[in-house]
Design a protein that fits this description.
Layout (H helix, E strand, L loop, with lengths): L3 E4 L4 E5 L3 E7 L5 E8 L3 H10 L13 E2 L14 E4 L9 E9 L2 E8 L4 E10 L2 E12 L6 E6 L2 E5 L6 E6 L7 E6 L4 E6 L8 E8 L10 E6 L5 E7 L5 E7 L6 E3 L4 E3 L3 E6 L2 H17 L10 E3 L1 H4 L5 H14 L3 E4 L29 H9 L3 E6 L3 E2 L4 H5 L19 E2 L5 H18 L3 E4 L19 H19 L4 E4 L9 H4 L4 E3 L6 H11 L8 E5 L13 H8 L3 E4 L8 H23 L1 E6 L5 E7 L2 E8 L21 E4 L5 E3 H6 L12 E9 L2
Parallel strand pairs: 23-24, 23-32, 24-25, 25-28, 28-29, 29-30, 30-31, 31-32
Antiparallel strand pairs: 1-2, 2-3, 3-4, 4-5, 6-11, 7-8, 8-9, 9-10, 10-21, 10-22, 11-20, 12-19, 13-14, 13-16, 15-18, 16-17, 17-22, 18-19, 26-27, 33-34, 34-35, 35-38, 36-37, 36-38
The structure holds alpha-D-galactopyranose.
Protein name: Alpha-galactosidase
Keywords: Glycosidase, Hydrolase
Catalytic activity: Hydrolysis of terminal, non-reducing alpha-D-galactose residues in alpha-D-galactosides, including galactose oligosaccharides, galactomannans and galactolipids
Length: about 700
């Protein structure tokens, strides 16, 4: 069965994923209307659904059918997805259908304005191995003389079917507290989720999930969407008092205006949508599968255990100190050594040197070669921290090119962390940035870059440019292009996305990076929540998680090493502590725990994730890979000193007997599903355990 079907009599398209269907139709006025998003149905059934959509009830109501990409004009009063103004002052659009074509799972529907030279293509892409539907749009100015003003150009609008109630799940946070999952009733209002910061942001992540208020981790219908964009974005969720819940989203925040030059076409990023019937857990697993198969470039590669110097040394890095850390890291079993901030220019603190990407001659008198060589001799790969989009005013770069930063005439240049943002929308700035990165990677055969961005945009102007708001698009596109080019020219290079921790995690950046620095917060208790939120959309194999020192640098909380490890082992394990200060006992324990991680790593990084909740404060993650299972369970506090009840597992086969690879204990799958896995948790707070189960025989 082809993935896209068309019924010419009813002008209806049906897109099919493995277990779901999405239907749209062309209305009499040639607008594309939503019909169905949910369980599989046939073309005939979809036609019936379309015919049942009733006309508007009164002159005060919008039409009952939902637009696939609402424009301004006609009886439309909800948030528009496409807002344009033509040179003569006319706003709004009236479409004429101009045809469609299907290329495998890619459907393009072409619409032309009836009078003006505006053309639109609605893109839909489905594939045989995922229920995720990718949608985006192309707007084109077909005139050869006059620009068109674009006030909004979203990638897609989505609609949940009629329900009595609607609830939205989304991710909020701040620096050090990213990915906090919130679930709230959808207000009868327009609710805006947005970043005006030029990066995805710590504060909101461009993912949301809508359900009718009854879905749980393992049951219920969930409609979720994620925008693949790493700059400013906006998603407007609209619950109509008499109608449906819909949401429209795309790049840019409100108030930006773009000019579509004569002959120009603008492609929006992908806004992907997923319907699942098995609760929030099934939604996450389907997203994880999609990210692996359709977003990441190296999904089958096992991410190395890394060491990062930041929490150990701060800006105080030099050849001798880093070599000493590297030796300790290697002796623990670390596979990739990453030197963080402080290695370049006059960078002795966050006030100076950013932008001067040459090794500091005092700290690295012979350049980076001796360190890189020693790291490799120790059997590790070598990585470096960079922050290519930023500059300290106190730097040679800024002194030479004060006009390269985002700025506005007659406005102060707001400094955050003593730095300004380079305008990578400028071809010269972008070219320079690519050139030094390319030289750096080539000169030292760099295996890994931690690509940071430590402040949002302010005074985001582009003096002298005729369409200055373009920088909100062009900067992000330039970041993408530089990463893509570096990766194409240096196939061994892997990149970690970071923006002061998890400020730039999204499907757009994941298409050109390999993992995300989830949060600067490495406190394992806080991390349980952060990782829970992160896992809603992103798989464990991209979730960077370090073990650092106790008490924690940010929260001052003291936790046992084992607990810190067990939390970090749920993702891509890294070590970020000051190894020079770890005791022999700690180092010995770390060796064992890193070795244990390497044993479970294929299951964690390539398996399927199930979020489990035990009783009291116990939470756990179970990873399943074939018939192998890994359970990581954490109990931050133990109120009343009560023992924890056995933890009921999922996804094990009832008829199979499993052996705990550590203790040798065996359990029938039916028992693990029914009464649960008894957990051998130490007493007291910050108790945790790791259980690795393999079938017997
Ligand atoms: C950001 C990152 C940290 C570290 C510092 C270095 O805050 O999130 O991990 O790299 O920058 O300045």
């Amino acid at each position: 069965m082809p993935p896209v079907l068309f019924d010419p009599d009813h002008r209806l398209w049906l897109l099919r994923g493995p277990t779901t269907a999405y239907a749209i139709r062309l209305a009499d006025d040639d607008t594309v209307r939503h019909v169905h998003w949910g369980a599989t149905l046939t073309l005939t059934e979809a036609v019936k659904v379309a015919e049942r959509i009733s006309p508007a009830a009164s002159s005060f109501e919008a039409v009952a059918a939902v637009d696939e990409l609402a424009v301004e004009g006609g009886a439309r009063f909800g948030p528009p997805s496409l807002l344009v103004r033509f040179a003569d002052g006319t706003r709004g659009v009236q479409w004429r259908y101009a045809g469609h074509d299907v290329d495998g799972g890619h459907l393009r529907i072409r619409l032309h304005d009836r009078h003006y030279p505006l053309r639109l293509t609605l893109h839909y892409r489905v594939c045989a191995d995922s229920d995720v539907i990718e949608r985006w749009t192309t707007v084109e100015n077909h005139d050869d003389r006059t620009p068109i003003t674009v006030l909004r150009c979203d990638s897609a609008a989505w609609a949940a079917p009629h329900r009595t109630d609607y609830r939205v799940s989304h991710l909020v946070g701040g620096w050090n507290s990213e990915f906090q999952l919130r679930r709230t009733d959808v207000a009868v209002a327009e609710t805006v989720f947005t970043s005006r910061r030029g990066v995805t942001s710590h504060h909101a992540n461009p993912w949301l999930a809508v359900d009718d208020g009854t879905a749980g981790e393992e049951h219920g219908e969930v409609w979720s969407t994620a925008l693949a964009w790493s700059g400013s974005w906006r998603i407007t969720l609209h619950r109509d008092p008499v109608g449906r819940t819909t949401w429209t989203g795309g790049f840019g925040h409100e108030g930006l205006t773009w000019s579509l030059a004569p002959g120009e076409a603008l492609d929006t990023p992908v806004f992907a949508g997923l319907y699942t019937a098995g609760g929030f857990g099934a939604a996450s697993r389907a997203w994880h599968g999609y990210v692996r198969r359709h977003v990441l470039s190296h999904p089958n590669e096992t991410r190395p255990v890394l060491y990062n110097s930041w929490e150990a040394t701060g800006f105080d890095v030099d050849e001798v100190g880093q070599i000493a850390l590297a030796a300790r890291a290697a002796s623990l079993g670390v596979e990739l050594f990453v030197m963080d901030d402080g290695w370049f220019g006059a960078r002795t603190g966050d006030h100076v040197g950013l932008g001067d990407w040459v090794p500091n001659p005092v700290r690295f008198p012979n350049g980076l070669r001796p360190l890189a060589a020693e790291v490799r001799r120790l059997g590790m790969r070598f990585g470096l921290w960079v922050e290519p989009e930023m500059v300290n005013p106190d730097s040679d770069l800024y002194r030479a090119h004060p006009d390269w930063v985002l700025h506005m005439t007659n406005r102060d240049r707001t400094e955050l962390r003593n730095q300004l943002v380079l305008n990578l929308g400028r071809p010269d700035t972008a070219e320079w940035t690519h050139a030094w990165l390319d030289r750096l990677v080539a000169a030292h055969d760099i295996d890994f870059l931690k690509w940071d961005a430590n402040r949002p945009f302010t005074e985001a102007g582009w003096p002298g440019h005729g369409d200055p708001d373009r920088l909100w698009i062009e900067h992000t596109r330039a970041v993408y292009r530089i990463m893509d080019r570096l990766r194409a020219d240096h196939p061994g290079l892997r990149i970690e996305a970071c923006a002061g921790g998890g400020g730039r995690a999204d499907l757009g950046i994941l298409a050109r990076t390999d993992q995300v620095w989830t949060s600067d917060n490495t406190d394992p208790v806080d991390r349980i929540d952060i990782q829970h939120g992160f896992s809603q959309l992103y798989p464990a194999q991209v979730m960077g998680a370090w073990v650092t020192d106790s008490p924690n640098a940010a929260t001052a909380r003291e936790t046992p090493l084992r607990f810190r490890f067990h939390v970090a082992m749920a993702g891509v394990l890294g070590i970020g502590g000051d190894l020079a200060a770890w005791t022999d006992d700690e180092l010995k324990e770390a060796v064992e725990l890193i070795a244990a991680y390497k044993r479970i790593r294929p299951v964690v990084q390539h398996g399927t994730a199930y979020r489990l909740r035990g009783d009291g404060t116990l939470t756990a993650v179970q990873y399943a890979h074939g018939d192998e299972h890994v359970v990581l369970a954490w109990c931050p506090t133990r109120p009343y000193g009560h023992a924890t009840a056995p933890l009921r597992l999922t996804a094990v086969r009832p008829e199979v007997v499993y052996r705990d690879t550590d203790t040798g204990a065996t359990y029938a799958g039916a028992v693990l599903l029914g009464s649960g896995l008894p957990l051998d948790l130490p007493s007291g707070d910050h108790a945790s355990t790791l259980v690795h189960l393999r079938p017997v025989g």
